[in-house]
Design goal:
- The chain is an alpha/beta fold.
- The protein has two domains: 52-279, Aspartate Aminotransferase, domain 2; 283-413, Aspartate Aminotransferase, domain 1 (Alpha-Beta Complex).
- Helices cover 44% and strands 13% of the residues.
- The chain is built from 16 helices and 15 strands.
- The chain has helices spanning 8-13, 15-30, 43-49, 71-88, 100-111, 137-141, 158-168, 186-195, 208-212, 249-260, 266-279, 282-304, 332-341, 369-373, 378-393, 401-413; strands at residues 32-33, 60-61, 64-65, 92-94, 117-121, 143-147, 172-175, 199-203, 225-229, 240-244, 308-309, 318-322, 344-345, 347-349, 363-367.
- β5 (117-121), α6 and β6 form a beta-alpha-beta unit.
- The chain is globular.
- Bound molecules: pyridoxal-5'-phosphate (PLP).
- Pyridoxal-5'-phosphate binds next to α5.
- Pyridoxal-5'-phosphate is lined by residues 37, 99-101, 104, 128, 130, 176-178, 203, 205-206, 229, 240.
Length: 420
C-alpha cells in the first residue's frame, strides 16, 4: 500500500518545486553542515512527516477532539506523549507546539499577565529571541530583565542571576541558550528562582538530545516548565514540545490550544513519536556521545591552529570561535561568506564583549550534530579544522577556494546522507 509519496508525483505535476527540492538535497549532500541547530532526520521520520496525516484536522487533545474521525491520530498523539514522558521523565507533555517559539509563548501565556517581569539570559551572551527580545512577543508584552555571563570565564553568572532576581522579583526565570558552549546547572537556576518566589522555565531547544541521552543534567526534575524543539540535537521533525509539572498541565494545554494555536500538525506529531522511539534506543546515546566528542575535537584542533575558542572549549555540541585575536580584520560575516564559497556552512555569532554589530559580529558558531549524523568522527574534524584555517588565512583573496571546495565535496561523498 502506498501511504507515502516519494517524488514520482511531484516530479511530473510541479517541475519547479521538484527541481528546487532536488537542488536542496544536492546542497545538503555536498556541504559540510556546521550550523549548530541543524540536523538530518532519519528516513522513517521524513516518511512520516510526508504522510497522509497532513490531511486531518484534530483540534483538541486525544479523547477530547472537536472533529470526528480522530481515532487514529489519537493513537499517534498518545504514543508521542507516552514516549516523550519515558524519554525525559516528565509528568506532563504537550507535543502540539508548531515550533520552539510557540512552546515558549504558550508557557508565557499560561503563567504571565502583560507587564509581569521575566528574568532571562541576554541575547548577546547566547540567549534566544523568544527570551525577551524587544521585537518578539515576549519583549513586547512583559517587563524583561537580563542576567549574563562572567567575562573572564564566559560562564553564566549565577550569583548575578540571584542578585537580580532578589532585586526585581520576577514572576518567571528562563534558562537556556542558542549559543552557549558550556553545561548549564538547571538545579541551581531552579533554586534561585524558587527562592525568590518565581517559576522557572528551562528551554533545552539546542541540547535536548544530550539531555535525552543522559549526557547533560536534565532540568525536568527541577524546573516547572521545560520547552524544546524536536529538530536540533533531538534529530526529529521541525517542531516544539512542552513538558511541565502536573499542577500546570491544564493551564499549559489551554494556553497552547486554543490560546495561541489552532489545529495540530498530526503528520509532524507522528514524526515526533518516531523521533522519540529512535531517541530511546542505545544507538541514539552513542550518537549523542559522538556529537560531544566531535565538538571537543574540533575545538582542540582549531586551538592547535591558533584560533581562540570562547570559554576555552566546549561541554556540548557547539563551539564559538572568537576571530578577534588571530584575525582582527575579519568579521564573523566575512568568515561566514568565505566558508560558504567552499561549501562549509556556518553562522556568524556575537562573542562575549562584542565590539561589532550583531549583523557583522566577531565570531562564528560551529556545531557538530549534523556532521555526526553523517557518520563523521575525529579524523574528519581534524580535516575540517585545517580547511577552516586555510579559508580564513586566504581572506580576502580566496586563492585556495577552488581546491578546498573540491576537498569538501570529496569528503561529503564519503559520508552519504542517512536518507540516500
Ligand atoms: C531554536 C531555539 C528556539 C526556537 O525554535 P523555533 O523552532 O525556531 O521556533 C527557542 N529557544 C532556543 C534556545 C532555541 O535555540
Amino acid at each position: 500500500m502506498n501511504i507515502f509519496f516519494h517524488g514520482e508525483d511531484l516530479e511530473h505535476s510541479d517541475v519547479e518545486v521538484f527541481a528546487a527540492i532536488r537542488s536542496e538535497l544536492e546542497r545538503q549532500e555536498q556541504h559540510i553542515e556546521l550550523i549548530a541547530s541543524e540536523n538530518f532526520a532519519s528516513p522513517a521520520i521524513l516518511e512520516t512527516a510526508g504522510s497522509v496525516l497532513t490531511n486531518k484536522y484534530a483540534e483538541g487533545y486525544p479523547g477530547k477532539r472537536y472533529y470526528g474521525g480522530c481515532q487514529y491520530v489519537d493513537t499517534v498523539e498518545s504514543l508521542a506523549i507516552e514516549r516523550a514522558k519515558m524519554l525525559f521523565g516528565a509528568e506532563h507533555v504537550n507535543v502540539q507546539p508548531h515550533s520552539g517559539s510557540q512552546a515558549n509563548t504558550a508557557v508565557y501565556m499560561a503563567v504571565l499577565k502583560p507587564g509581569d517581569t521575566i528574568l532571562t539570559m541576554s541575547l548577546e551572551n547566547g540567549g534566544h529571541l523568544t527570551h525577551g527580545h524587544p521585537k518578539n512577543i515576549s519583549g513586547m508584552l512583559y517587563h524583561v530583565v537580563h542576567y549574563g555571563i562572567t567575562l573572564n570565564t564566559c560562564l553564566i553568572d549565577y550569583d548575578e542571576m540571584l542578585e537580580i532576581a532578589r532585586k526585581n522579583r520576577p514572576k518567571l526565570v528562563t534558562i537556556g541558550a542558542s549559543a552557549y558552549p558550556r553545561s548549564i546547572d538547571f538545579e541551581r537556576v531552579a533554586n534561585i528562582a524558587h527562592e525568590c518566589g518565581a517559576l522557572v522555565m528551562a528551554d533545552i531547544a539546542h541540547i535536548a538530545g544530550l539531555v535525552a541521552a543522559g549526557l547533560h543534567q536534565s532540568p525536568v526534575p527541577f524546573c516547572d516548565f521545560v520547552t524544546t524543539t524536536t529538530h536540533k540535537t533531538l534529530r526529529g521533525p521541525r517542531g516544539g514540545m512542552i513538558m511541565c509539572k502536573q499542577q500546570f498541565a491544564k493551564d499549559i494545554d489551554s494556553a497552547l490550544f486554543p490560546g495561541i494555536q489552532g489545529g495540530p500538525l498530526m503528520h509532524i506529531i507522528a514524526a515526533k513519536a518516531v523521533c522519540f522511539k529512535e531517541a530511546l534506543s542505545p544507538m541514539f546515546k552513542k550518537y549523542q556521545h559522538q556529537i560531544i566528542k566531535n565538538a571537543s575535537c574540533l575545538a582542540e584542533e582549531l586551538q592547535a591552529l591558533q584560533l581562540s575558542i570562547v570559554s576555552g572549549g566546549t561541554d556540548n555540541h557547539l563551539l564559538l570561535v572568537d576571530l578577534r585575536d588571530s584575525y582582527p580584520e575579519i568579521s564573523g560575516k566575512d568568515a561566514q561568506f568565505a566558508l560558504d564559497k567552499v561549501n562549509i556552512t556556518t553562522n556568524r555569532n556575537t562573542v562575549p564583549n562584542e565590539t561589532r554589530s550583531p549583523f557583522q559580529t566577531s565570531g562564528l558558531r560551529l556545531g557538530t550534530p549534523a556532521l555526526t549524523s553523517r557518520g563523521m568522527k575525529e579524523p574528519e574534524m581534524k580535516q575540517i579544522a585545517n580547511m577552516i584555517k586555510l579559508v580564513l588565512d586566504n581572506i580576502p583573496h580566496g586563492e585556495e577556494s577552488f581546491a578546498i571546495r573540491e576537498e569538501v565535496i570529496d569528503l561529503c561523498s564519503k559520508f552519504p546522507l542517512p536518507y540516500k
